[in-house]
Model the fold of this input.
Amino acid sequence: MPSFKQRSYQKELLDGNQVPFVDIQLNMQELKSINKWLGGHKVTIAGIGKILNCKKGLQELHVVEIGSGGGDNLVAIKTWADKKNIKLQLTGIDINADCIAYARKGVSNDIQFIHSDYRNYVFNKKPDIIFSSLFCHHFTNEELVVMLQWMHQNSSIGFFINDLHRHPMAYYSIKILTAIFSNSYLVKNDAPLSVLRGFKKKDWKLVFIKAGISNFECEWRWAFRWLLTSCT
Done:
C-alpha cells in the first residue's frame, strides 16, 4: 500500500523524453475526458470566476495557462466565455513540443499555443490571469515556490491553480477507472501516480508561505481537487 503522508517524487512516464507522439496523443485525448467527466473543467471555470471578482468591469481579458498540454482547459474557458459574452485572449505555454503540436492541430485558431519553458517566456504586456491545471504536481515543493512567485509577478489581476488532492479514495478510484476504461499505458501509470504526487492543504500553505504570498485561498472541490486562488 502506498503512503499518503508525504508527496511522492517518482517521475511520471509523460515526464520522459522518449514518449512517441501517438502515445502522447492518446494520453491527451483521455485526459480531456477525465477533466470533463470528473469535474476538472468546472474547477478551472470556478478559478476564472474567482479571479474576475478581484477586478470587476474589465471588457477584455488575456488568460494564460502554463503547462497547457492538449489545450482542453483553454477550450473549456473559451466555451464558457462565449456564452457569457466575455472577450478573451487565450494563450497556452508548454515545454513539450508534442503537446503543443497536438493542441495546435485539434484546437481553435482563436487560441495561441507557445512552445517554451514558461520561466523563459517574456510577455510584452502582463496577462490578466495566469493559471495551471494538473501541472504543479509534476514539481518539487522547492520548484513550486519559484513557480508561484513567477505567476504572482507576471499576472496583472491574479493567478489560480487547479490540482489534485492526495487521498486514498482518489488514488484507488482513478486506478480502478483507468484500469477498466483507459487504453493508454501513460494514463494507467500516471493518473494514480499523479494523486500520490498531489497535495494536502498543509502542503499548499507551506509552499505559499515560502513563496511569500499571503493573500490566497485554498478550497477543496469535487472530485478530489484543490483550487488555489490569489489576487495580485
Remarks:
- The chain is about 45% helix and 20% strand.
- The CA atoms of residues 67 and 135 lie 6 Å apart.
- The beta strands are 60-66, 87-94, 111-115, 129-133, 158-164, 217-221, 225-231.
